[in-house]
Amino acid sequence: MDHGYKILGSFEDLFSQDITGKLFLLTMGDMRIRKDLTDRIYSRGGIIPTLIHPTARVSKFAHVSQNGVLIAPNCIVQADVTIADGVVMRDQALICHTTNIESFVFIGPQALVGALLNIKEFVFIGQKSLLISKKAKIIGPNSIVGAGSVVTKSFESGTTVIGNPAKLLETKGTSTEVNP
Fold first, then answer.
1. In what side-by-side order are the strands of the sheet with 150-151?
2. Which residues of 112-131 are buried (b: 16+ CB within 10 A; e: fewer)?
3. pLDDT tens track for 72-121
4. Calculated CA dihedral for residues 89, 91, 95, 101, nearest 10 degrees
5. Cα–chain-centroid distance for residue 65?
6. Neighbours of 19 (CB within 10 A)
7. Distance between CA atoms of 72 and 62, rounded to whole angstroms?
8. What is the per-residue pLDDT for 44?
9. At 175, is the pLDDT very low, low, confident or very high (cuts 50, 70, 90)?
């Protein structure tokens, strides 16, 4: 049992069945696991629809993938935003105009992603982070923005940043001290 629900089996048990045409919602926080399961579900004919909470406001000029995007309550997506497959926007996140969010990005609760940014795939943006318009232009793939961070410049692939203003904590798996 988990939260009062009976566990019916493993993922392998699931994938041994015919899932053609069945709908799925994936909620795990590890976007690599989410991507792997997404690929497995699609390859077996399953469907992961995009789900947008009724209290979210998405501009009619935004482009949201129909494949597995989750937009939670009270989120705002402004005009000319592009959101790719598998993106998760948690409660009250705001994406400002003319921003591109690539596949399998996680945007934490109350995060604000400014205008004219390019967020590459598998980026994790922590809760209440602020990415400043025109200051940060690109957040490289596989990067992490710590909760509450204020990002005022671009960061390369595999970078972890924290603080206000956000400073380098780690790059490509090599830990370093936070730069003063």
1. 57-58, 76-77, 94-95, 112-113, 130-131, 150-151
2. bbbbebebbbbbbbbbbbbb
3. 999 999 999 999 999 999 999 999 999 999 999 999 999 999 999 999 99
4. -10
5. 13
6. 16
7. 16
8. 96
9. very low
